[in-house]
Request: fold
Amino acid sequence: MKAARFLGEGRIAIEDAAEPVAGPDEVIVDVAACALCGSDFRPLRQGWPVTPGHEIFGRVRAPGTAAHGQRVLVYIPTFCGQCAQCQAGRTNLCPRAELLGWQRPGGYAQALAVPRQCLLAVPDDIPDHLAPLLLDAIGTTAHGIRLASRVVEPGAALVVGAGPIGLGSLMVLQALGWGKLAVCEPNPARANFAASLGVELLSAEAAAARAFPLVIEASGKDAGRALALAAVAPMGAAVQLGESDQWQITETKALRRKDFFLIRSFYFPLGEYQANIELLRAHRATFEKLVDDTADLAGLEALFAAFARGERLKPLMCPA
Ligand SMILES: [Zn+2]
Ligand SMILES: [Zn+2]
Reply:
């Protein structure tokens, strides 16, 4: 089969790879779509030992069984089901889990092996091209917003960064009935798209001068993180969803003398999947706008280059 190898410095080779082998309690999934993600920039830049790609939709390959052809999403942590986190339903926090597309081969390939418990059935009314949104664009963002809802009432919110996670956050906040929304985004195309959702555009300076009960940090940049901590209101919540290699905080007087909640949120527990399907169903016309391009494996490198320039919102790799 064909699979992508990330060589570093933005280069991707499409290679002949060995067919995946299903281990005990695993199945082979033929990839139909794998969504590009900002977190893939790290493997893209550094090179990566396994095939990346972690927002995977496909079909189970199990000829002669009832499961054959089943439409599935791939839940990326290979959670153990036994530990304290798993027992509490926090499958995203299992310390024994490996992540598909990170430590195990992922979805920028024609097929991969997936543990059975990581298969998420996709209802028939969710089309192929929208299914991957249920993972990071909706799943990751909705989980962070639900965590924040434990400590702040729905109200005004600022989103820092309008990449896929920032835009997904804005759409989920709207879907969940939060109040007036604002966004900081330097890329004009992405900012304009956010404005088309009815979201107020703010410069970083203007945002920092206000106080928001909720700030979602989705830029993965130190400056964005500093802005989130400056703009969060007293007793508000700053939710960190963006990813980066490192994070440095400069403690200012404004930070020192403010009570606020800082929430780090990673992926989502399996138990939230059904609620996320309902969010997508109820607001499909909005979420659909995110999926703005597709390419096959051979076109993945060029698609990543356009994505990195901020010219695509949430494109998909669909193997030929
Ligand atoms: Zn992702
Ligand atoms: Zn576990």
About this structure: The chain has a mean pLDDT of 96. The CA atoms of residues 164 and 313 lie 6 Å apart.
